[in-house]
Structures are given as structure tokens and as C-alpha cells.
Write a structure and sequence with these properties.
Elements: H1 2-14, H2 18-50, H3 64-67, H4 71-87, H5 95-98, E1 101-102, H6 105-111, E2 115-116, H7 118-131, H8 144-158, E3 164-165, E4 172-174, E5 183-184, E6 196-204, E7 208-218, E8 221-230, E9 245-246, E10 258-260, H9 275-285, E11 292-297, H10 303-316, E12 327-332, E13 336-339, E14 342-345, H11 353-364, H12 378-391, E15 399-404, H13 413-429, E16 432-437, E17 446-450, H14 455-469, H15 472-475, H16 479-488, H17 493-503, H18 510-536, H19 539-551, E18 554-556, H20 557-567, H21 571-580, E19 585-590, E20 593-598, H22 600-606, E21 611-613, E22 616-618, H23 621-638, H24 653-663, H25 667-680, H26 685-697, H27 701-714, H28 719-731, H29 735-747, H30 752-765, H31 771-784, H32 791-805
Parallel strand pairs: 10-12, 11-16, 11-17, 12-15, 15-16
Antiparallel strand pairs: 1-2, 3-4, 4-5, 6-7, 7-8, 9-10, 13-14, 18-20, 19-20, 21-22
């Protein structure tokens, strides 16, 4: 089948008319997706017939998507089917389909990013078609090169689950798996070696399906056909659903809550650490005024494990919590997991708060839910659930709801805000909510951060898992060795669990297991940890992250500023983006200087990534070299010995670099360094004073006054600060303010003759000029000037003032 489709794709590439290319590609896309979905669907049916016990692993699919599939429905159906077959034993069926790979230039134009998986490509193609005018029956703006690239990518990535052609050239086979021969495909077949594209499947009597289809005789030539086949596909079981059970705590005979929670993810003997987090959950549980609790942190930190452990301890009476909820509901939106088999997709469904509310309602209703549950807004659905719950006499304080992995429920900024509002509604009307998320959701909630274990906790966990798995290499290893391996894996629970599993394989040494996990981390752990956070960043923010990672794992404030300047991103916004997901890195201040340390997994994730911005692939090598060169210049300037009348202004490196740049005549660069220094050393009034004076010397008076005012706030008793401020106000023609500030400077000890000279400037720059007062000030200034080594310079400035302003 793959060869047939590839031949057709080459034919589409030869077509001259872009509209014909689009029509041919759409036909090939439907044929490819249909055959892939039918293969996976029939494989599930055959597997369940051969081993009914596998039904418990079947996640279910929506059969209506098979009956009359549209392009977008087929893409979603294929994702659901791939998840289902992987859960039932066809391991890594979707690995190539979901693998993120570099895109060709035509696909970059379509998707708008340099790397993506084929699912993302297909959804972008469907969206582009639906949004374009051809989606409304009109000729559109086609890109034949991109169209052909889409179908080629789909055929290549779907090849592992496309049918093969039997020896007779007509029948199709489900591809062989595990060395077994291919199984005949029931629903679809070839006609004279040509594939079909079905339009509708209809279940008929006698256990048959009527297939209404078109034979694709050529790229743009079709022939109608109807045939019947055994109904294997449409008899798949309905989507499996969880059910509530009644918990019967022996320690509390009057408490019988309905619970829907998973089994422990870590046994009592293996659960490690998290005493602080458990105590925080207990504290929240008994604070009935708090409706929401947010357990947040990097992926793989054990947030879900922690919350499930807390729920079991609550039911088992192992906590001090006095609250007794009557209903406990756990709902997960998790889509992927990372383990010994690498990255696995466990769900393809996009869900939101409305889906949670509908699921709770469905589980508590004795009759099927009517349409009104499905065509209302999330707020209205939550209100309906509150009404249903009231009818069951369950108060909102008696229902505990856990929303797991809420970061997958929203992808862009608008959706994130909407999600926060919807969770608020759920907690306000239905029950108290504990949510887990990799990001800090935009919601007011009791926060409980989760971070990596300590090295000692990592050691403790490895010893516990080693005993459970009977892993001799771990059992026999010394504490220092295990602690060292834990530290090398960043003490991250998910990595240590996989390490323990790898080490327990027969004949596997500790070192080989460790190297295996490190290779796995470089391969796809970053995708598991950071894909969702990466997709939430704006393209410009992704640009600055990539540029910073090209420079190094640990970067200081000036590198951040240089990278942000190249990417046209605000420094504060970049810092917030990093802090939002602690998995990316940590933002700290060391002696007032901002510093970012990226996590190793994130650095690996960014290593070969690029971003497409305005048709340009970034970051460029030129930009990276520019940042590195400017930073070297900064370091050289920052190490210069400052010779200034007030060295207390130049404490941080950026301030010293500002002084050196100013002395060298690099004025704009000096002011950039001054601005950075004020961020690093914001309470240094002497710095603001020297910054103000530098601006003053370049006649940038309004900016200078702003800095001078800040200096006088920080140095209210320092005459120099008031003197600088008075000088600036004098040049701006603000005589009353200047005179007042110069009087303050003199009263604090600034020499009178210097203040008198600046008063003279205030009078001549005022409107109207007061020449007589200015003349008196100059006379007083010369009279009181001390006879020291500075007298000649002062007299020269006073004489120049008289020659310009006081001529008769």
C-alpha cells in the first residue's frame, strides 16, 4: 500500500495546475488516513477476540468517526487509535507518527515552526484548508510544494500501520507484528490494484457493513462502488469508563465516601520524601475557606504521585485532617508519559473543565445525559452539575475534585485565562479543587511547589526500589555510588524510577543502566517535559530562549540583556517566562545580579532547535557571535579600575563597564550599561547620581532629572545628589525648584561658590531671564571661592558665564 501511495504522490507532484494538486493531495490524504485507521481498528477487534482480558486496557474510540469521517475527524481518530493499540500491546506503534523532526521549507511555511510531528502538520493542513476560501467551495491560494510535502510526510510516518497488499493484488493485510503473518483486512480492499476512498459505513443485518466508496482509478478520476463486508470494525466496545466505589474506613465507622481515585502510584514502602508537601495538603484540607489548592512543578517531579498518596492517607486515617468529604473525584488530562520504553502517548483527547463536569454528571446519572449537557458553555455545564449534585444532597464542601495535569487543558494565553475562570466556577459551585500543573495557573489558589528530591532522598528511593525489584546491582551498590548517580540524574523522581527499572533488567550493570537512561534523556525526555511549556511561549520568546542556550547553561544579567535585545524581548518578560515553568531553569540574584541557570534536560531540548520568524530561521550564527563578542567587551570594561570622584557608585560590573564606555566615548553603550546597573543595584543612590550627571553632560535633561530625583530619594542627606538635581533643573528653566534644591545642597555642606554659580544658570535659563539676579550670584560666587588648586578652573567657568550671559 505504501508503494501505491508513494507512486500517486509522485504523480501529484507532476501536475501543473495548483488546484489539481490540492484535489489530488486531499484524495490521497483521505485514502491514507482511512486505511491507517481501519488497520488499527481491525487490529484492536482481532486482539480482543483472541484475548478478551485485554479489554481492561482498551481506552475506547468514538465509532461515529469511522462511519462518515471528515479530514479533521480522521486525524483525531488516528491519534486515539494509536493510543489504544499501544495500550493493548502494539508497542511504539505511533513513535514515528508522533516523533518531532526537522521540517522541510515547504512544511515550515505551512506549520510556522522548524520542527513538528506529522500530526501537527496534518492539523495545520486541515486548518489552512478550512480557513481558506476553498473550504467554502471557492478557488484558494494554493501552495503545491507544501501540499505534496504533506502527503509525502504522512505516507512515510504512517507506513508502520498501513496495510500490505496480498499476493492476489486485491486483498489487503494488517501488517505483520512480532514475526506473525499479516492478518486479512476485512473492511477495505483494492479494485484492480487501485485503492478506494469510502464515504460511509452502514451496519446492516446479518452482521455486515455496507461500504459506500469511490475507486481511485487515477489521481483525478473516481468510480463509485458499493460492497458489503463482515462487521468487524463497528462492533468495537464502547469507550471504557471508570466508576465510583464506596470506601469503608474502619477507623471512621460513620464515614462512607464515594471515591473515584487511582491506586497508589508508589507503594507505602517506596513512597519517598514529600513530608513538607503532605503537611501543606493537610493544612489546606482543613482550611474550609480555601477552595483551591495548586500542586505545581516540573514534569516528572511526582505531583500526581504526591496527591494520590495524600488521598489514600486521608481515607486510611493516616493524616490529622478532620475534613470528611462525601465524594472524591479524580480526573486526569495527562497525554504522555516517559518510562523505560521512552516517550509514550496515553491519550489523544483534548479535554477541559466542561468535560470534567459532564463526566461527573454521567457517572452519577441513572439515565443517559441529554443534549443540553453537550451544547452549553463550560460555565453553564458547571451550573447544571451543581444542580444535579444538589439533588443528590451533596454540598459543595463535601466534594473533593482533583484535576490532574491541567497544563494540557489550555495551550495559549487566552485559553489559560479561561481555564482559570472555569476552575473558579467549579470550586465555587461544585466542590473544593486540588489541581496539579506544570505551570503556575492563572488562578488564586493555595500553592504547593514540588521540586527534585535531595541526593539523600534519591539514595533512599533507589534503595527502596532496588529491594522491591530485587535488583542486585542496586542492592550491592554503596551509598556514595547511588547518591552520585542520583545527583547526576538531577535527583528527579521520573529519571530515578526509569534508572531503577533499567538496572533491574537481567544481566544489566549499574553503569550500563545509567548510560541508557542518560541516552534516553537526551532522546525524548525533553519532549515529555517541555513540549507543553514550549508551545505556550510566543515565537519571539522561544527565539531568546534558544539564543541564551546557545551561549551557555548558566548566563548572567548582561547576556540576558544582549539576547533580549537581539530577539526584541523585554528582559522582565523573559525572566517571568523562565520562572513560570521551573523545569526550564532557575532565576536567582547573586549580589544583586540576575542569573539564569538552565536545566540540563532543557539545554538538550534546545540544542538543535530553531524557530522560524518572519521567514528567517533563528537564532543565527551571526547573532550568537555578536552576543559573545559584546559580552567579552563588557567583561573587559567591567574589570577596569574606576577613577571617579565617587567610586561608591560603581559597585556592580555593569556600572564599571558604564564608566569605561563613557570615558571611551561610547555614549549609547555607556547608557545601556548604566540602565543595567540600576537594575542590578537598584538601591545605590550614588549610581543614580552619576547616571544623572552623565545624561546631564549629554544635554539629555529630562532623563537626567528622572535619575537625579531617584538619587535624592535614596540619598536624602547627601549634598551631591541635591546639587546634581539643582543643576539639571536650572538647565530645564525650572528656577524655583533649582533654587530650592541648591539651597538644600548648600545647607548639607556643598560649597557656597559652586551653588551660587548654578543659581546663576537657573536665573538665565528661566523665562523671563533674570540677568540682575544672575550677576549678583556670580559676584557672590567669585567672592566666596576658596584660593585653592581648583580656583583657576572655577574662575574660567565663571568668566565664560559672564561673557555669554552678562554682557552690557
Amino acid at each position: 500500500m505504501q508503494a501505491i501511495l508513494e507512486t500517486r504522490a509522485r504523480g501529484a507532484e507532476q501536475l501543473k495546475n495548483p488546484e489539481n494538486v490540492r484535489a489530488a493531495v486531499l484524495g490521497l490524504m483521505r485514502i491514507t488516513l482511512q486505511h491507517a485507521c481501519v488497520v488499527l481498528g481491525e487490529w484492536i477487534a482481532n486482539t480482543l477476540r483472541a484475548d478478551p482480558s485485554k479489554l481492561q486496557n482498551f481506552t475506547g474510540v468514538d465509532l461515529k468517526d469511522f462511519v462518515a469521517p471528515a479530514d479533521g475527524d480522521l486525524v483525531s481518530l488516528l491519534s486515539e487509535l494509536l493510543v489504544a493499540v499501544e495500550n493493548m500491546g502494539w508497542k511504539s506503534a505511533g513513535r514515528h507518527y508522533w516523533e518531532t523532526v526537522p521540517l522541510s521549507d515547504p512544511l515550515k511555511r505551512l506549520v510556522g515552526k522548524p520542527k513538528a510531528n506529522v500530526e501537527t502538520v496534518l492539523l495545520a493542513f486541515v486548518r489552512e484548508r478550512n480557513d481558506g476560501v476553498e473550504g467554502h467551495g471557492l478557488p484558494g491560494d494554493y501552495d503545491p510544494e507544501s501540499d505534496v510535502a504533506v502527503i509525502r510526510s504522512l505516507i512515510t510516518r504512517a507506513a508502520p500501520f498501513l496495510p500490505t497488499v496480498a499476493d492476489d493484488g486485491e486483498a489487503l493485510l494488517i501488517p505483520s507484528l512480532g514475526g506473525r503473518e499479516g492478518t486479512p483486512l476485512k473492511t477495505l480492499k483494492l479494485y484492480g490494484g487501485d485503492p478506494i476512498c469510502y464515504r460511509r459505513l452502514t451496519a446492516t443485518s446479518g452482521g455486515k457493513i455496507r461500504v459506500e466508496a469511490q475507486i481511485s482509478r487515477a489521481l483525478l478520476k473516481r468510480e463509485g462502488v458499493i460492497f458489503e463486508v463482515p462487521n468487524l470494525l463497528l462492533e468495537l466496545p464502547a469507550r471504557s469508563s471508570p466508576e465510583y466505589s464506596i470506601a469503608e474506613p474502619s477507623w471512621e465507622p460513620d464515614w462512607r465516601p464515594f471515591v473515584l481515585i487511582p491506586d497508589r502510584l508508589a507503594t507505602i514502602q517506596e513512597f519517598t520524601g514529600r513530608s513538607t508537601e503532605l503537611s501543606a495538603l493537610e493544612e489546606w484540607a482543613d482550611d474550609m475557606d480555601s477552595r483551591r489548592c495548586m500542586v505545581h512543578g516540573d514534569g516528572g517531579m511526582g505531583k500526581t504521585t504526591l496527591v494520590i498518596e495524600f488521598l489514600h492517607r486521608l481515607i486510611e486515617g493516616e493524616t490529622e485532617v478532620k475534613w470528611r468529604p462525601e465524594l472524591i473525584t479524580f480526573y486526569t488530562a495527562k497525554k504522555t508519559r516517559w518510562g523505560l520504553q521512552g516517550l509514550e502517548h496515553i491519550s489523544a483527547q483534548d479535554v477541559g473543565v466542561a468535560d470534567v463536569a459532564v463526566e461527573i454528571a454521567r457517572l452519577h446519572s441513572t439515565k443517559p445525559l441529554d443534549r443540553s449537557w453537550y451544547d452549553k458553555s463550560p460555565k453553564e455545564v458547571v451550573a447544571k452539575l451543581a444542580g444535579l449534585q444538589a439533588g443528590m444532597r451533596i454540598k459543595r464542601d463535601d466534594h473533593l475534585i482533583i484535576l490532574d495535569n491541567t497544563e494540557t487543558m489550555a495551550k495559549n494565553e487566552a485559553d489559560i485565562k479561561a481555564l482559570g475562570a472555569q476552575i473558579n466556577e467549579l470550586s465555587k459551585h461544585v466542590g473544593r479543587v486540588i489541581l496539579t500543573s506544570r505551570r503556575r495557573e492563572q488562578i488564586e489558589a493555595f500553592p504547593i511547589p514540588t521540586e527534585s528530591w535531595t541526593p539523600d532522598e534519591g539514595l533512599e528511593f533507589l534503595k527502596k526500589r532496588g529491594r522491591t525489584l530485587k535488583c542486585q546491582s542496586i542492592i550491592q551498590a554503596g551509598a556514595a555510588t547511588l547518591r552520585s548517580h542520583s545527583k547526576a540524574l538531577n535527583n528527579k523522581p521520573i529519571a530515578l524510577e526509569v534508572f531503577a527499572q533499567a538496572a533491574s533488567a537481567p544481566g544489566e550493570s549499574l553503569e550500563r543502566a545509567f548510560e541508557r537512561v542518560q541516552r534516553m534523556q537526551r532522546h525524548d525526555l525533553g519532549q515529555f517535559l517541555y513540549d507543553d511549556a514550549w508551545s505556550r511561549l510566543a515565537p519571539e520568546m522561544r527565539h531568546v530562549m534558544l539564543l541564551m542556550n546557545r551561549i551557555g547553561d548558566v548566563i548572567d544579567q548582561y547576556i540576558i540583556q544582549l539576547c533580549c535585545r537581539v530577539a526584541n524581548v523585554n528582559v522582565a518578560a523573559a525572566s517571568e517566562a523562565i520562572e513560570e515553568s521551573k523545569g526550564i531553569g532557575t532565576v536567582t540574584k547573586i549580589q544583586g545580579i540576575l542569573q539564569v541557570a538552565f536545566n540540563p534536560e532543557f539545554s538538550n531540548y534546545c540544542a538543535e532547535r530553531t524557530e522560524l520568524l518572519d521567514g528567517k530561521t533563528v537564532p543565527t550564527e551571526e547573532d550568537t557571535n555578536w552576543v559573545q563578542r559584546r559580552y567579552r567587551e563588557f567583561v573587559a570594561d567591567a574589570s577596569t579600575q574606576v577613577r571617579d570622584r565617587n567610586t561608591r557608585a560603581f559597585v556592580v560590573p555593569s556600572a564599571r563597564a558604564a564608566w569605561k564606555s563613557f570615558q571611551d566615548g561610547n555614549i549609547d553603550q555607556a547608557f545601556q550599561h548604566y540602565a543595567a546597573a540600576c537594575t542590578e543595584d537598584p538601591d545605590n543612590g550614588y549610581l543614580y547620581d552619576r547616571f544623572a550627571y552623565a545624561l546631564f553632560s549629554q544635554r539629555r535633561y529630562p532623563e537626567a532629572l528622572e535619575k537625579a530625583k531617584r538619587a535624592t530619594v535614596l540619598l536624602a542627606e547627601e549634598p551631591e545628589a541635591w546639587f546634581t538635581r539643582g543643576m539639571i533643573e536650572a538647565r530645564l528653566g525650572r528656577a524655583p525648584e533649582a533654587l530650592k534644591d541648591l539651597d538644600r545642597a548648600e545647607s548639607l555642606g556643598k560649597p557656597r561658590h559652586l551653588c551660587e554659580l548654578q543659581r546663576a544658570y537657573a536665573y538665565v535659563y528661566s523665562d523671563p531671564k533674570d540677568v540682575d539676579s544672575a550677576r549678583k550670584c556670580i559676584e557672590h560666587a567669585l567672592k566666596h571661592a576658596p584660593r585653592d588648586r581648583f580656583l583657576d578652573r572655577f574662575a574660567s567657568e565663571a568668566t565664560a558665564f559672564k561673557n555669554r550671559w552678562l554682557r552690557d
